[in-house]
Amino acid sequence: MFRDEIEEKRARRLEIIEKHVKNGVIFEDEFTAYIDSEVIIGEGTFIGPCVTLRGNTVIGQRCSIGQNTVITDSKIDDDVDIKSSVITESTIGSGTKTGPFAYLRPGSHIGKNCKVGDFVEVKNSTFGDGSKASHLTYIGDSDVGDDVNLGCGVVFVNYDGTKKYRSVVEDGAFIGCNSNLVSPVKVGKGAYIAAGSTVTEDVEGDALYIARAKGTKKAGWVSAKGILKKKK
User: Fold this and answer.
1) CATH classification number, 11-231, choose in 3.90.1170.50, 2.40.50.140, 3.30.420.40, 2.160.10.10
2) Residues acting as catalytic residues
């Protein structure tokens, strides 16, 4: 009985895949794709191995959905490239590249021609056309404008342990690596945040914001402490 149920599920799954193949969808390995019956996929889209598409997901034409990607109840426009990512209840605009290992949580809306790179997490946020977060960044409860660059290690600090707050980064702003935006703050149009800064106040457009402790050098400190001798 159990074996019969497995065979029946497998037959239904392959019927769904066959329907998409007839509509011009390309599968690297049809035996490892898992697609719900409600899913819509555009012509010319490539589906890699071990891809799971769930619920009311709509994928446009000429997309590439790479290995181990899981997409649930989301809308993906044309010409999107997704590599090994998890996307839930979100939208991605045309020409955007996502992953590898990106995580789009519910309420994320990514614009056109964006880059959401490796180990980038987006939650309940908008990300404007042409904006980039290439790696190791958390964008939570925020509205990011067009052509914004978020450097490596940028964190939107949206939760104080009790409430969650929202921040805004306007068009053309540049957020340097390892910066923290402590919500709620607003970074104005074209502003620059220096790498390593923690932003706790609004920054007007066209401004440079620097928030770092001054570095201190102590010449000869290592030798005086005898650290090198201890290592030997």
Assistant:
1) 2.160.10.10
2) 135
**Tens-of-pLDDT digits for all 232 residues of the chain?**
567 777 888 889 999 999 999 999 999 999 999 999 999 999 999 999 999 999 999 999 999 999 999 999 999 999 999 999 999 999 999 999 999 999 999 999 999 999 999 999 999 999 999 999 999 999 999 999 999 999 999 999 999 999 999 999 999 999 999 999 999 999 999 999 999 999 999 999 999 999 988 889 999 988 888 876 655 5
Rg of the chain over all Cα atoms, to the nearest angstrom: 23
Distant-in-sequence, close-in-space partners of 6: CB < 8 Å, separation ≥ 6: none
Q: What are phi and psi of 174, to 5 degrees?
A: -125, 120
Rounded to an integer, what distance in angstroms lies between the CA atom of residue 50 and that of residue 132?
27
Could you give the C-alpha distances from 201 to 22, 173, 229, in angstroms and in order?
A: 55, 15, 46
Q: Report whether 34 contacts 52 (CB < 8 A).
A: yes
CA 192 – CA 185 distance, rounded (Å): 14
